[in-house]
């Protein structure tokens, strides 16, 4: 039987998508086990990124951003992240590289004052993405749970207010009822 899968949309900035096929496959399989459909939108350049994020609808849909450090022709991931941050303020970013160590990536992100950036080697990418994914999904589930508690408490209050008004109405004389 077909179960409903939730989409997990990722903006993925990588100039050589063939280099991350294994990672895409790995993330996709792990997310499938969690009941999610992994949907990466691959952009090869900052120009493609800007075209992709120019529509508000798209930026609202993005759950996570993945950015490679080496984007070819002397362009680096931190510049792409900076461009993305101009339009998409509060999305988590996983910044990765096959050539640079995670602490070098962290330094590059820090120097550009970029927040909410997780850094990983390409080998560790699947693990890192799944860690961020789990914390994002957990936040959403916690929010839903909290919303449920609040809704429950609110409906109790609504009921009490309604009872009080009915009681006051019943005890009032004609002018009180009109008021």
Descriptive notes:
The longest helix has 47 residues, at 125-171. The model has no long low-confidence stretch (mean pLDDT 88). This protein has a five-stranded parallel β-sheet with strand order 2-1-3-4-5, sandwiched between helices. The chain has helices spanning 21-33, 46-52, 56-61, 77-87, 102-111, 125-171, 174-178, and strands spanning 6-13, 36-43, 64-68, 93-97, 117-121. It is an alpha/beta fold and 179 residues long.
In terms of per-residue confidence, which ranges show pLDDT below 50 for 5 or more consecutive residues?
A: none
Determine the oligomeric state from the structure: single chain
Measured by DSSP, the beta-strand proportion falls in 15-25%
Please give the share of residues in helix.
Answer: 55-70%
Number of helices: 7
Distance between the termini: 59 Å
Structural class: alpha/beta
Series of H and E elements: EHEHHEHEHEHH
Shape: elongated
Strand line-up of the largest beta sheet: 2-1-3-4-5
Q: What's the β-strand tally?
A: 5
Overall mean pLDDT score? 88
User: Sheet with the most strands?
Assistant: 5 strands, parallel
Overall radius of gyration: 24 Å
């Amino acid at each position: 039987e077909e179960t409903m899968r939730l989409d997990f949309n990722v903006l993925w900035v990588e100039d050589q998508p063939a280099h991350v096929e294994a990672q895409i496959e790995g993330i996709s399989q792990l997310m499938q086990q969690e009941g999610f459909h992994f949907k990466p939108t691959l952009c090869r350049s900052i120009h493609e990124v800007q075209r992709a994020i120019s529509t508000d609808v798209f930026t609202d849909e993005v759950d996570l951003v993945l950015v490679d450090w080496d984007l070819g022709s002397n362009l680096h991931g931190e510049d792409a992240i900076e461009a993305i941050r101009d339009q998409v303020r509060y999305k988590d970013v996983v910044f990765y590289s096959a050539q640079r160590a995670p602490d070098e990536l962290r330094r590059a992100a820090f120097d550009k004052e970029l927040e909410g950036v997780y850094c990983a080697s390409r080998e560790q990418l699947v693990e890192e993405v799944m860690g961020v994914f789990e914390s994002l999904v957990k936040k959403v589930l916690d929010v839903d749970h909290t919303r449920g508690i609040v809704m429950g408490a609110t409906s109790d209050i609504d009921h009490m207010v309604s009872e009080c008004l009915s009681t006051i109405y019943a005890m009032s004389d004609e002018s009180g009822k009109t008021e």
